[in-house]
Amino acid sequence: MQTLTSIDELEEIYGAPVPQSLSKVAPSLTPLYRDWIGASKFMILSTIGPEGTDASPRGDDGPVLHMADSRTLWLPDWRGNNRIDSLRNIVRDPRVSLMFMVPGCNNVVRVNGTAVLTADEDLRSHFARKTLLPATVAVITIEEIYFQCAKALMRSRLWDAEADRPAVPTAGQFLKEQEAGFEAEAYDAGYADYAKSRMW
């Protein structure tokens, strides 16, 4: 297999970027990007650290994060399985990328920037759910924001209810594959009730 090892080789294959792919980039939130992010309940947080890269899904029942100002985003971290891979990475390397998705929309919005973590109670209190607070908040500084063209989601028909939906393994089956004695069926049957009280 021949591998590509230089930017020159890549550019020879792909040619020049489409001009709008560069001109669409903004250094901070604009009114339209605010509208998009405000409608996004789901995003992917990508980080990098000494052990490698990590991409983590983040979701909520309203906007997935808070836009504090034109260059600052607050992302709450609700307790999960305590692996905290993304958070470990941010502590050691502040670079982050975010990908915001909106159901039914084939475009996505991307943010590149840096983040720091805080356990400041005032900041955490902004996201209060009754008596619950997120464990930490990532304070993200935007360096660039832009929309990604729709081709990937169009190809995959991600939101198309008529698209073929393959049968896929369950979470319990994944766990049983690594731990033979694991009770996969009981885990899958009970997970919705288990998660209900642990969403926030």
Describe the secondary-structure layout.
Blueprint: H1 7-14, H2 19-23, H3 31-39, E1 42-49, E2 52-59, E3 66-69, E4 72-77, H4 85-92, E5 95-101, E6 108-118, H5 121-125, E7 136-148, H6 151-156, H7 171-178, H8 184-196
Antiparallel strand pairs: 1-2, 1-5, 3-4, 4-7, 5-6, 6-7
Helix pairs in contact: 7-8
- Counted by DSSP, the helix tally is 8
Largest sheet: 7 strands, antiparallel
Assess the beta-strand content as a share of residues.
25-35%
Q: How many angstroms separate the termini?
A: 48 Å
Average residue pLDDT = 95
> What is the topology, as strand order, of the major beta sheet?
2-1-5-6-7-4-3
Radius of gyration: 20 Å
Give the number of DSSP strands.
7
Can you offer a commentary on this structure?
This protein is of the alpha+beta class and 200 residues long. It is built from 8 helices and 7 strands, in the order αααββββαββαβααα. Strands 2-1-5-6-7-4-3 form a 7-stranded antiparallel sheet, covered by helices on one side. β1 and β2 form a beta hairpin. α7 (171-178) packs across α8 (184-196). The longest helix has 13 residues, at 184-196. It is globular and about 55 Å long. The mean pLDDT is 95.
